[in-house]
Amino acid sequence: MLLAPCPAEGPRVASATVRTPLPPLPGLLAYEATARLGSIAAAADELGLSASAVSQRIRVLETHLGIALFERQARSIRLTPMGQAYLPTVRGAFDDLSAGTTGLFGPAGRGRLTVRVQVSYAMTWLVPRLQDFHDDYPHIDLRVVTAIWANEVPPHEVDLEIRHGNGRWAGFTADLLHEDQAVVVGSPAHLEAYGPLTGPADLEQRPRVHVIGYDDLWQRLFPHTPPPSRGAEATITLDTTVAATQFAASGLHCALVPERFARAAVRDGRLVVLHDRLVPLRQAHYLLQREGEGEAHMSPEGRTFVQWLIRQDIEDPPLQPGG
């Protein structure tokens, strides 16, 4: 039986996974605190230790390094030249560790909540109210993500999700959050040019916006609307209600959109309600949690956020066309 020759031994290269032994952390903490505060007694008070324990930790660190970090005198202590040179490295490491920890997990004593919502819900309803949430709950770091960044936030990092639909999604429990109705809106310029919307024949002559996913709303507003005639105004189709709302506010097209998403624009005068009938939507907004993580497992920050959402509807009720 032939054996392959053994390769000639060369110089050994340290594995990339082997880490040079680190200095003892308790000694580094005692050294940095003593250097910063100027005395072992002050460092002991900050660290919650006895003065002798601080001195012992510094001596262990000095033994590890093989150098003296402090010159000890009868009633004072001061850094040696090597102790002075080492200090920026240790402080920089502590600062980097502190900044990285805060960036990932938030400041100590603060709560953190990640909520995923759809773009239209975020832009037209939620985001304009977030300053109020921050003012009421400054201790909660709130992260709102939309489908635009869906792949950037792993599912396990999302605490709550708000979706619009029929309430059935595999792998989630869904609790009804908002039921909505659609309202016909247009810009003040549209109202001046066309007047209030009176019926199907009137609608046929107006420029209007269709929103993908809400294709049946105009037909449900006027069930006997005839097919568009050759002389009818062309329509524009957009894929989000936020786009339709912004487009209607900036031009002469009218839009039939969820009242919730038009509410702020109507109240600040960018849009006006053109017809006094609301069309109930067949879908609603639901609060989603992963199966097995019901209200009993919701974090205090999550419960606070949900209660705040509910209060928004009470404090800012829906528009009442014709009321």
From TrEMBL:
Residues 23-80 form the HTH lysR-type domain. Pfam families: HTH_1, LysR_substrate. InterPro entries: LysR-type_TF_proteobact-type (IPR058163), LysR_HTH_N (IPR000847), LysR_subst-bd (IPR005119), WH-like_DNA-bd_sf (IPR036388), WH_DNA-bd_sf (IPR036390). PROSITE patterns: HTH_LYSR. The keyword Ion transport does not apply. GO terms for molecular function: DNA-binding transcription factor activity; sequence-specific DNA binding. The keyword NADP does not apply. It comes from the Bacteria. Keywords: DNA-binding, Transcription, Transcription regulation. GO terms for biological process: DNA-templated transcription. PANTHER family: HTH-TYPE TRANSCRIPTIONAL REGULATOR (PTHR30537), HTH-TYPE TRANSCRIPTIONAL REGULATOR TRPI (PTHR30537:SF74). Belongs to the LysR transcriptional regulatory family. This is LysR family transcriptional regulator.
